[in-house]
Amino acid sequence: MIGFYNYTVILTYIGFACGMFGVYSAANGKTEGALLSLLLAGLCDMFDGKIAKTKKDRTQQECRFGIQIDSLSDMLCFGVLPPMIAYSAGLRHPVHMMIYFCYSLTALIRLAYFNVTEEERQDKTNERRKVYEGLPVTSSALIIPLLFAIPNDWTWFSIAAAIVYGVTAVAFVTRFTLKKPQMRAMLLFIVAGALELLLLILQKCLH
Predict the structure, then answer these.
(1) Strand partners for 133
(2) CB–CB of 49/67 below 8 Å?
């Protein structure tokens, strides 16, 4: 069959499946299920690159396929699913809709730009990337669940959501650098995600 199916891309495929489940959940008004899917997709994305790099004999075609498939999966999981979550929660004002469009568009632009620059970088060096340019789209796996995990009045929540989605969209394409997280930081992200999940569960139980 066309494509690659070795262990280096399996976690990316699982993350994509989480994203698809999240979109289906959001389309059916199951916001909590969509948020859980977003967290799981973020967890998969955190380790798919590290797993891929354990295969020392990857061909150039496999490496480039990995870049493309990861970004395509990221577009669904972190470029489309977050706005779907807000929409399913009832945030459907025309202003929100415009912000969602900008959010998804800037995510698309950022991912395409990353693909181009990453391929150029790999043509010049085999060193691992040390910094990110702009806010990675995968950061939405922590930002969006945190937004929904904090109890708030609906009016203020509606405003807060517009601000968070809008600022995040701008940050995707703003030219600044972030140091690529090492294992300690990744473990902290996992703990933060687990705490957000706990807050979401508590909020659900209280309501």
Answers:
(1) 177
(2) no
Q: How far apart (Å, rounded) are the C-alpha atoms in residues 192 and 129?
A: 24
Beta bridge partners of 178: 132
3-state secondary structure of 60: helix
Assign residue 153 a region: left if phi > 0, alpha if psi is -120 to 50, beta otherwise? beta
Q: Answer yes or no: is 1 within a domain.
A: no
How confident is the model over 179-204, as a mean pLDDT? 88
Residue 139 resides in a domain: yes
| CA 102/CA 192 separation, integer angstroms | 27
Full domain range(s) for residue 65 = 7-206
Judge whether 39 lies within some domain.
yes
CATH code, domain carrying 46 = 1.20.120
In this structure, what token pair is assigned to residue 33? 């299920």
Proportion of the chain in helix, strand, coil states, percent, rounded to 5: 75, 5, 20
pTM score of the predicted model: 0.92
Residue 27 lies in a domain: yes
Residues 163-172, mean pLDDT to the nearest whole number: 97
Structurally, the chain folds into a number of domains equal to: 1
